[in-house]
Amino acid sequence: MSIGGYGNMLGLQVDIDHNSGFCFGVVYAIEMAEEILEEEGQLYCLGDIVHNDEEVKRLEAKGLCIIDHKQLKDIYFAKVLIRAHGEPPSTYKLAIKNNLELIDASCPVVLKLQNRIKNSYDKDESIYIYGKHGHAEVVGLLGQTNNNATVFQDLSELDIEGLPREITLYSQTTKSTDSFYEIKEKLGQAGVKVNAHDTICRQVSNRDKELRDFAQQYDKIVFVSGTKSSNGKVLYNICKENNPATYFVSNKQELNRYWFSPQDRIGICGATSTPMWLMEEVKTELQTY
Predict the structure, then answer these.
(1) Is there a smaller number of Cβ atoms within 10 Å at the N or the C end of the chain?
(2) Is 137 designated active site?
């Protein structure tokens, strides 16, 4: 096959990282959505089912309709999918009021975390959540506390001197375990007693080390991810640190043959929100160069 008149000149060797691709929570949500779409041809989903535009487009073509919380208020007597990130209690209350059938695909790891935060809140503990402001999962976690917990992305946001002398610390499930324990240690050194609950998903956090090893094995790395994926940004930067010849693409159209040299060994990897079919498409395209 000839692309731009070059023919098969580069002879690239291309491998896909077998650890990349959807985490089990996303696989579960997409399988549930596809099952209903096959039977009924239409399904509402509250927020993007996954932070990957290409996968969202694929499911929209099957009848998935992405809605936001504002639109949900005007929907009655319908099926609505709750994605892996989970939802606050207010969403479930609205579903009862509007006679909605919720298809709950909340990730089990997220549900466990929500329950633990709710228990801490019921005991009047001072709850701090290490996570991204406004992230769907964090909104769901905050909802367990009637929005009375403190969310921070970085220790610099906290007035450590003004903190209670004892706090309960949680983390968004996709945060770095190293950062979580570093925060716990620094707060402890500042005289704060920290009751830390590590509920970080190991399938996500273990990707750090796996990707470092993977990135170092190749001449060039092509990292495939949606631009909305927080996890994608973090993992891309890990690849870039370990292999400066790392390129970020959202689909095969964004590839550039001039990035590559003859006989290059290319590694393809992606975020936990990147579908395997998309990485396969990128591989097939590279093999035409």
Answers:
(1) N
(2) yes
